Amino acid sequence: MARRDPSAPFCSDTSRSLGEPLTATASRVDEWLLVEWSGAWGRHALTESDLPAPLADRLDTFDRAPRSKAILVRKGFRDDGGPTLVVRARSTVGDERIDLRHADGADDTLTA
Length: 112
Prior knowledge:
Helix content is 21%, strand content 27%. It contains 3 helices and 4 strands. A 4-stranded mixed beta sheet has the order 2-1-3-4.
């Protein structure tokens, strides 16, 4: 996969400088937090779910941070009570990494 030239401007910055509308442009996300959750969730997964309140609040706070996105993911429809997979990916120029771990429960997920 080709790496982005860090000296090149972002397309949105170029468009903004030209006075072009930015409606429907993709948001820039540098940090992702994916939490595997087998429970139910609604259209706004972080606030319309059966997540424990402390976990939902923490994920919502993370999601509201600039250039951050928290999402719930599911592998099929399993509900085996097993550990939850937590993936945290950071992508900033010169600092790209992915942290992958299993959480034994909602409290452990909070420390991800």
